[in-house]
What does this fold into?
Amino acid sequence: MTLTTFAFLVMAVVLVLSAWGVVVAKSPVRSALSLVVNFFVLAFLYFGMNYDLLGISQILVYTGLIMMLFLFCILLLNLGAPDTLFEPSLIKRSLAWFVGGVLVLAVSSQVIGPMATWSTSTPTAPEGFGQAASVGQSLFTGWVYGFEIASVLLLVGIVGSILVAKRRD
Amino acid sequence: MQTGLTPAPIDWVLLMPLLIVFGTGVVGMCIEMLRPRSNNNAIVATTLLGLAAAAAYLIGTWEYPTIHTFGELFLSDRVAKILQLLIIAITFTTVLYSEGYLRERRLPFGEYYPLLVWSATGAMIMATSTNLLIVFLGLEVLSISLYILAGLSNREQQSQEAALKYFLLGAFASAFLLYGISLLYGATGTTQMEDLRAIWNTPLDKPTVGLLYAGLTLILVGFAFKVALVPFHMWTPDVYQGAPTSVTGFMAAAAKVGAFAALVRFLDYATPMSDAWVPMLSALAILTMTVGNLVALVQKDVKRILAYSSIAHAGYVLVAVVAYGVLSREGSAAQPVSVVYYLIAYSFMTVGAFAVVSLATRGGRERTELNDLNGLWERAPLPAAMMIVFMASLAGIPLTAGFLGKLLIFRDALDAGLVVLAIALAVNSVISAYYYLRIVLATVVQKPALHAPRFANPNAGLVATCLVCGLAIFALFFAAQPVLRELEAPQEVFVHRGP
It folds into this structure.
């Protein structure tokens, strides 16, 4: 086992455990902190694959921005352990387990297969994939349209939040 | 490393209607910043002018060749042009009667119009895209505007509740859609629908086949939430009831048109996977029609009745979608004629019906119980008469567009060999006649109880909306041939690859 594989396995285990923690933790603050760990480790996985830009945006945008907002909301609203989130109906619970299980099986069967054959063939992304230069290239050439629609989306968000705040008085 | 950027070739002519509609919203926003207080007339006028300009431009460039442009992310073919025109028409008729209604509701927000127009932009983006990621962005532009508009009234808890419910379930649906898209991307490395079709067309024995099916299912669940198919419809009645009536009418029409446009295009490219999605969507269609109509029977609130009716109508359109899927797989249908025709008919009857319901608002309060409509016939005969037309069309009574639309779907379903779906459609149309009749009775026959009928004055805008929608319903029946010919016309798609 090479050092890279070892590092990957450690990070993968932490990633899965922290994701589990987000769902299982009773208190919202603990869930949120598990999510912070999850985002950080995911960013380091990206770094390990040389996706610098993706890793940095992961830390800046998700850990820095989104998680701060989550924590603010939780603390401001003073959310305790949500008793109402427990689903009493056995049918709904088993249905949820079934659907979740199918999804886990579908995704993991696709991922574990290729991973077993890693020793012979390592899947690689195209040269420069996820680097700042190539992301910038595609954002401003092929994907200008999507980029512009995203800016429309932001405009709608700004106007909407002004409207939500304005009508209070 | 390559330096210097060459942007994707852009065909401005095809893109222009979208840009005009979006720009109208921006101009409206600027006027809102400068306007004298509590007078929205300038914004309304600008919005109407902008929408008319976009429609005129679209019609003026109707014969312009269909080019796949903007990095192959944008495609405005015949069906997309018709749907764009429809979305503009929905927005135009909604704006016409909104001002009177909003004044009556004491909701004098100028931002209403830009948000409405941007929401329409989102629907137009969905109707013209061949890339799943762009469809998702369009859906978000459409939805986020609608979340805000649904909660426009801060004094009423109902409106706030509607906005929150819509926001949470809408975000949930978007998550499903995005999860599906990312699974497909993970399996194939593309979000472009043509490339997906090419990959699906190759024999499905590669290790990623599970991801393809999971992705497809999740995308369908996301769309099912957005167009309110049973069992993903729980939010619809509450949101339709709580949102301001003009927003409800727009939401019921434009959001469904946008989502169905994207769904049909996606399924068109997903024909190689049709063995998986035809049974799934058939089951959803039967459930949606039946549950929608049966629950509508026992409702007492007009907006809730219309909400369940819109669920049932989503089921009818889904039958058309499935029939088109089967027919195009067999190579006997090139265009989703019955889907588009029904969407056009449905939009006009829905916007019209909600416009008439908005008359029951008076002095800032909204009253939407069935008996709140009593006496409308004496107070405002023209809208009440038009209400009969809308209800007749929704029920599918001959001489209206709703009848011809159902007939086309019925014929397509039989041609495709979907006999069960055709029978379910016919039975459900009969059931639905009962509650549409109840609305007509409440409007025309029943006398108000003790208190005098209190209705808003039917202003010119509302009368215009009613007339436009009513005329469209008859015109679509009596002059159906040109519309259907336009829909069936074959066309060639060119790819814009730059100079």
In short: The CA atoms of residues 47 and 89 of chain A lie 43 Å apart. The mean pLDDT of chain A is 82.
